[in-house]
Amino acid sequence: MDFFHGQPTLTAMEWILRAVVSFSFLMIIAKVLGQRAISQLRLLDFVIALVIGNIIAHPLSDEELGLEGSIITTIVLVLLYLLGIYSILKWPWFRRLINVAPITIVQNGNIIYEGLKKARITIDILLEELREKKVADVQKVALATFEADGRISVFLDPKYEPVTPALMQMKTEGFDMPRTIIMEGIINSIELERNHKNEDWLASELERLYQTEVKNVLLATLDQYNKLKVFLYK
Fold it and tell me: Where in the chain is the domain with CATH 3.30.240.20?
């Protein structure tokens, strides 16, 4: 266990053992802290992001520290991370251990207090999350769950869902992504050609519709009906 204590030098194996022990220790600490503490990162992602930055930073800021130990440790940690990802995909029991199941915190308009305690969040946090999703009344929520990445998923009772064309059995047109033909005063010639247009047409349309020039355009898009939409610098 000499690798546990400070020493003038460490062998490659001792660096590897240090990395394995540190990674396992941080996994346990992050698990104890709970998902809310590590925000919107999953457990493995949080641990790897936390340690690698610190490992690389120390040799860069201290001329007395060599890079060998940091490089070995980083390689071992990356391998442990990849092994963890593989294990999550391979073994369901390991997946359940690392990625906790969603916790129900609201069901049929009722707040599940036991779920709040398990997720380690307060009523204030729940109400804040609902407000961010533009839900003012808890009783309108059919189901709210605390997810493994720290987010709260909210499903409204169907009678409070916004009316959509599908519900009204209305016929709609297919989705069309507008094409960007000007960005920050620069013409996208390739996109113009794809739409069978040229720079002369674009210049005349800008003058006719907006009384402006290309250099004054922050963004201009063209839809499937060749309708030009322009956003000017302001």
Answer: 103-160, 179-232
Q: Compute how many other C-beta atoms are within 10 angstroms of the C-beta atom of residue 220.
A: 24
Report field, pTM of the whole predicted structure over 0.85: no
Phi then psi for residue 104, to 5 deg, are -75, 125
Residue closest to 141 by CA, chosen among 186, 91, 106: 106
List the structure tokens of 176. 């069309």
Which of 2.60.40.10, 3.30.830.10, 3.30.240.20, 2.40.160.20 is the CATH number of 179-232? 3.30.240.20
The third-level CATH classification (topology) of the domain covering 103-160 is: CRO Repressor (3.30.240)
pLDDT by position in tens, the chain (length 234): 454 445 556 677 766 776 677 667 666 665 655 544 445 556 666 666 666 666 655 644 444 555 566 667 777 777 877 888 788 788 888 777 777 788 999 999 999 999 998 888 888 889 988 999 889 899 999 999 998 777 889 999 988 888 777 777 888 777 788 999 999 999 999 998 988 889 999 999 999 989 999 999 999 999 888 889 999 987
